[in-house]
Amino acid sequence: MAPPLHLLGPRASTVAIAVGVQLAIIFLASRSAWFQKQVRKFKRLSKQGPFFRGLVWCVAKFWQGVSAVLWATLGDKMDVLPPAASVPKLKCIAKGVDAVGVAWNAKKSSRFSRDRQELQIRGCVGPLEKALATEWLDIDEKFTLEGSEAKNSYTATGITPGQCLEFRVRTTNTKGSSDWSEPLRVYTRQEPVDNGGKGPRYHWRQTSEVVQVVVWLEDEDVTSKQIEFKCCGTTLRLAKRGAETPYVEGKLYALVKPEAAEWVIESAVPVWKSPAAKAREPGRAVVITLEKDYPTFKTADTNLSKGHWPCLIKGHPTIDVGMLVSGELELKDLY
User: Fold this and answer.
1) Which DSSP symbol is given to 28?
2) Residue 193 exposed, middle or buried by CB count within 10 Å (0-12, 13-18, 19+)
3) Residue 136: other Cβ atoms inside 10 A
4) Quick check: 138 and 130 in contact, CB under 8 A?
5) CB 164 within 8 A of CB 123
6) DSSP per residue, 200-254
7) Which domains does the chain show, CATH number per domain?
8) Counting Cβ atoms within 10 Å, is residue 253 exposed (0-12), middle (13-18) or buried (19+)?
9) φ and ψ at 48, to 5 degrees?
10) What are 282-308's pLDDT values in tens digits?
11) Rounded CA gap, 92 and 190, in Å?
């Protein structure tokens, strides 16, 4: 039982009363919204400080030690079947004329599982081809997200310019594998020809102010009356009337002046008759001339709004703008 305050002396009594008042204030303040807000702010700031980060590092090292001991004792019995949540997510991190880089992230099957990722690749010659020509091929490299050999990226090299590739990845361990990720389709960049490149059924070129598109007419009997052409400034469509599949359709890379758009059917125009063709051959084609909404210039930075176009239609194969030639091309040279 605590002694009465008058037996503690005047100084001790004052201290006890002051402590009691402070405790009462703290209790009442803790019930207020302001105090609770300050506590939350303190916790948030603590997570950004060195003490909290050090604590997180220590906890992570502790669990790594526990995992190593358990694996040394129980081996692959620590693995669990990778759940659906452990399916990795793929993204393209680099793209060039003859190389493509991809990376992924994945959640571990469990805290103690030793997962690794399996990567597959397949490719075809030809942009925007729905059914790829080759089967999935395994990449023999082993990938893991932890330890001294941690790696979650891959670069495919020695690829043909303008080639289409697909990648997919999954998580696997001794208990089984997760589902494959959604295929990631990537195109290597094309080497520019006359500051342009190739797309499905067409090739295109550009100057600072004009874009010309040459669309091969596989059906030699098509007449101008059967051609359906539409350009509204942001989109382009060229088709044969009544046909299910247009020759060219999509959203243009940048604005053009629709009132200045022209097209004409020409004979014996050099065209790429297939995406895999090594050279152009004479053929019948529709030649489209588009005037850019604003002049462009050569630059290796594709983020600049006034740089030369890297592609004609968004989503179609792109050219390497770093390889563009200096100087202007004559319109007569663009056929």
Assistant:
1) H
2) middle
3) 13
4) no
5) yes
6) TTEEEEE-SSEEEEEEE-SSTT--GGGEEEEE-SSEEEEEETT-SS-SEEEEBSS
7) 12-76 (no CATH), 84-187 (2.60.40.10), 197-334 (2.60.40.790)
8) buried
9) -95, -5
10) 888 999 999 999 888 877 665 556 788
11) 17
Type of residue at 162: G
| Whether this model's pTM surpasses 0.70 | no
Distance of CA 95 to the CA centre of its chain: 11
What are the structure tokens assigned to 328, written together?
Answer: 């202007």
pLDDT digits (tens, 9 = 90+) for 130-170: 455 678 888 877 676 665 556 788 998 888 787 888 899 99
Which residue type does 90 have? L
Structure tokens at 185: 């389709």
Q: What would the two tokens of residue 129 be?
A: 């081809």
What amino acid occupies position 123? Answer: G
Helix and strand counts by DSSP (H, E) for the chain: 3, 16
Question: How distant, in Å, are the alpha carbons of 101, 165, 184, 334 from that of 132?
Answer: 19, 9, 13, 32
